[in-house]
Amino acid sequence: MFMMSHKTDDIFTIARKRMINEQIVGRGISNEDIVRVMSDLHRHHFVDEALVNQAYTDAPLSIGEGQTISQPYIVALMTQALLLTGQERVLEIGTGCGYQTVILSKMAKKVHTIERYKMLAMKARQRFIGYGLKNIVMRVGDGSIGWQEAAPFDRILATCASPKSPQIFLDQLAPAGILVIPCSEKNGHQSLMRITKKENGYRSENLGECCFVKMIGRRGFRK
Predict the structure, then answer these.
(1) Angstrom distance (rounded) from CA 190 to CA 181
(2) What is the pTM of this model?
C-alpha cells in the first residue's frame, strides 16, 4: 500500500517541500516538531494510487467510504492546537487513512484511535505496521462515544464534526486536558474549537471556520 520504491518517493520530494513552505510554514504554523514530522512523512503513502499525484495539493482528498484526508494545513493546525510535549496519551476520533494518526504517534507518548469503517481501519493498520509504529492502539467502532475504558486522555482530537456540545469527550479528558474538535453550528457552518479542561470548568477557543465530514454515531449525526 505504501511500499513504493525510493525512486517513486523521490519524485514527490519537491512537492513535499513546497507543501511545507507554502501551506504549513507559509500560513503560520510555527511548531518545529510539526514541520519536521510533516517534512519527513510521505503523504502520498496515505492516498489511493489514483490520487497520488494530488497528495501534496492544498485540498482534502477522498479516501473512500465518503471520508477524506484533510488538507495539510488543517492537519498541521489541529496538531499544533493540541500543544503536545511528547508525554501525552491521545485519543483520536476518526482514524481515516492514518496520516494524522502517524503524526500524533511521532509527537505523543501513545495514541488510541477509533475508526468507524472497517475497510479504512484495515488499510490504516497496514500503514502503521509498515512504519513500525508501536505506540498506536486502534479499534473499529463508534467514535462518537469516545473510549471510556481507556480514559482519561491528556488530549482528544476529532477529525469529524460534532453536532452538539461534546460533553462525552470532555468527561474523558484528564485534568488540564485539551480537546480539539470541529463543531457544527445552527446555521450549518462549522468552527474548529479548542477546549481546555480547568479546575473550575472549561475554556473554549474558536480557531476559525472549517469543513469536515460529519461524526456518525450515537452521540453524533444519525446516518
Answers:
(1) 10
(2) 0.94
